[in-house]
Amino acid sequence: MPAMTHDDHPCDFSPPYQVLWDFVADDFPLPESAGIGRVQRFDFGSELALYRSEFRVTKDCVIDCHSDQKELAELLCSIFLLTGTITLETPDRQQHLITPQSGLLFRVQDIGSRFIIPGGQTVRHIGVANPMSILHKRLGDQLPEGLANFATVPEGGTVNRRLPVQSRLRGLLTDVFSPVTCAGGSPTQELQLEAVAWSIFAESVRLTITCQDNSSSQAPLWGEQVFNNITVYLRENLERPLKGDDICQRFGVSKRQLHQLFQTMQQCSPREFLRRERLNRARALLEQTDMPVKSAAYAVGYVHVSNFSKAYRAFFGETPGQTQRLNSTGGSER
């Protein structure tokens, strides 16, 4: 996939204390003194490549990508985020929003892609790339429906598919930043990362094959209205115990209809949607206020802080305390 570049100039972002990271790599300044970043690339013998990146962004910036054009044209690439929001702008000037809930599988022939990154956030990025020849070798020349569109790329253009980040894929992405795979000098680190990278690639392919286009899976108008009412209610009551039976009774839907609405509109279960909303709200509280971890947990419906911390780490790849410390130092220290 396109690799990020950076200027080889002294970093203007130079705090007087040690900057702590979860993985071992060289720091580099973001363009226009917009923060600091760190990137790792792992090339495995199978030609599979894994990218692990973290950007601590203090103001808006743009990071140019670079790749060998011949190599790039053969790659099937993916981009996912654990935290933060970025926009991938491809050489045809198409912009693709990437969030923790929605990643991208894509092919692009021409160089010139770039990441547009809003300030005031920490971005944790995972990318996996594999030559199309490997995919053909595994699945045959006639690719399954959904993947067949990636067999060729129009001149000067891109082929892409937005992928929902559901719990199964989310867990794999978190594994990329787990203490085991981030342990510097571990003799099994690359072996474990290769296994995770293959799993992410396989899950991306599976989702591409199985997920229906939005145009063919729209909820009826009444369903959209009910869904919007339900999500507003959930977001306004995250601190309360919310049960499926109560939701069904309140909004006049069956359990089956409730699950179908969330699968159609959000590609996830109601339980997963609620967990995601609670944890994202908690992260916003930790980043934007001085609220203690315990209070943030209670504010989004967690009675036991230990359960909250475990769920938070599994979702974001870092502890609530790490998020809080990063916020307290202005995005400069973990």
Which CATH architecture of the largest domain would you pick?
Answer: Sandwich
Strand content: 15-25%
Strand order of the largest sheet: 2-3-4-11-6-9-12
Count all strands and give the number: 12
Describe what you observe in this structure.
The chain has 334 residues and is an alpha+beta fold. It folds into two domains: 3-211, Jelly Rolls (Sandwich), CATH 2.60.120.10; 216-266 and 268-328, Arc Repressor Mutant, subunit A, CATH 1.10.10. It has helices spanning 69-73, 132-139, 167-176, 179-182, 189-210, 221-236, 244-251, 255-266, 270-288, 293-299, 305-316, 320-328, and strands at residues 3-4, 27-29, 35-43, 49-57, 61-66, 75-83, 86-89, 95-98, 102-108, 114-117, 121-131, 158-164. The strands form two sheets. Strands 2-3-4-11-6-9-12 form a seven-stranded antiparallel beta sheet. Strands 1-5-10-7-8 form a five-stranded antiparallel beta sheet, with no helix packed on it. Helix 3 (167-176) runs antiparallel to helix 5 (189-210), helix 3 (167-176) packs across helix 11 (305-316) and helix 9 (270-288) packs antiparallel against helix 10 (293-299). It is globular, with a radius of gyration of 21 Å. Residues 5-19 and 212-216 have low confidence and may be disordered.
